[in-house]
Every structure is written in structure tokens, then in C-alpha cells.
Amino acid sequence: MDNVTLVTAVNKKYLEKFKKNFPIWGTVDLIADIKSVIVFAHKDCIVEIEKLLGECASVDVIEWSFPKAESEREEMLTAFVHGVAEHVKTKWWIKLDCDTKPKSIHAKLPDDWQSHTMCGHKWGYTKIKSDPKWEKGLTEHWLNRLDSWADCLEDFKGTNHLFDKKITTARHGHSRTCSFFAIEKTGWTRHLSQMCNKTGGRMPVPSQDTLTWYGITRMGGGRTVLPYNFKRYWSP
């Protein structure tokens, strides 16, 4: 874990859950071995978080905002793309949602996690959340929107759509990963941030783990996503 940074993001809405969970995280053997921690704190709670973590030498509290975001949810999730790309210096980083609780003091990663670009909890669908434009029929479904976004980038040249049909239901079943707990190569996250910047700065959909899974899966070229049952150790 010497080359891994633990990253979470907090705003006022999740502050109380973070206060309860953060001290417990440090009792988990996997997390206790990590020497670098970043907490992206929204301006609405950064003073409280700095007071709470002021004595933790290994924790960097970084004020986070993203004015281009169209929702509170999008703003905080963007920290796991642009914030990580700018501030994480280790080869790998772990995303741990601030409302996620450990189930015991023992947790592990799969033995071959370093052979993959990202390892996240195995998941079986994408569900649109907090996207009124889609609900009003003004935009494509997230998965179709991701295909359209990738088509605009030279980075995806020669790759194919992952979703060929027009999806109309808010919940679409397919194999993917989610990231209440996940580990990812920082180099990939920087690449993802750069691609978002090429298309205006915002994530093409307001879902960081959907975007990450999609980008790695479609781009390929040795990049892989490893699904794993992290719910055996963590409760989202």
C-alpha cells in the first residue's frame, strides 16, 4: 500500500456519515497500511472537516468545487476524476465513498489487482439518477451518450460502440462495476480527466464509475476492469 492513496469526497449532506465512518476506516487492516489520504471537502463543510482531521498528518484536506456541474451529485463525483488527476501522486488510488462502512477489521484486494486498470465491485446495471434533462427527453440515455461522447475523441479511434440500440429505460441491465470501494491506476484517471477537458470539462454523464468503467472497457488496448465482490468487506 506504499504506492496507494485513499480518496474520499464530502459535502454537507454527507458530513455526519463521514464523521462516523472515517475513524472506523482506520481500524481496517488494508486501510491502516495506507500512508496517503486525500479528503476532497466542499466549501460548505471544509471548516468542520479541517477541525476534525487537523491532527492527522497523513491526511490532506483539499477544498473542492466544480462550478460547471449541474447538480450537487455531479460536482462531488467530478472530484474523483479531475481532483484525483491533479492531486494524487501515487501510482494507484482507492475510492472509498464517505457513506461506506467496513464489515470487519479485515479486508483485501484480489491477488491480481495490479494486473488491471481498475478493480471495482461487480454490478449488473446502469440506472439514471438525478438527470431531469433525460427524464424530459432532452438527452440520450447515459450509455448511448457515452458512445456519442467517445465518438468525438481521437483517443477512441478504431473502437466500437458498446451499446448499439437506443436505450429508453432508466435502468438498463448489463455487466459492469460500481465503485463505493474501488482501486484504479492514477495514470488512467489522468487520461480520463484529459479526455473530459477536451470535450468541455464536464463528465459526459454525471456518474464517475459509469464513465470509468465505460472508458476502460471501450478503449481496451490492454486496459481492463476487474469485477470483484467488495461487499464481503464493505457496506455501501
Instruction: Report mean pLDDT, rounded to a whole number.
Output: 96
SSE ordering: EHHEHEHHEEEHHEHHEE
Look up the CATH topology.
Spore Coat Polysaccharide Biosynthesis Protein SpsA, Chain A
Strand order of the largest sheet: 3-2-1-4-7-6-8
Tell me the count of domains. 1
CATH architecture group name: Alpha-Beta Complex
What percent of the residues sit in helical stretches (DSSP H or I)?
A: 25-40%
* CATH class identity: Alpha Beta
Account of the protein in words:
37% of the residues are buried. The strands form two sheets. Strands 3-2-1-4-7-6-8 form a seven-stranded mixed β-sheet, with helices on both faces. A two-stranded antiparallel sheet has the order 5-9. It contains nine helices and nine strands. Helix 3 links the parallel strand 2 (36-42) and strand 3 (59-64). By secondary structure, the protein is of the alpha/beta class. The chain starts with a strand and ends with a strand.
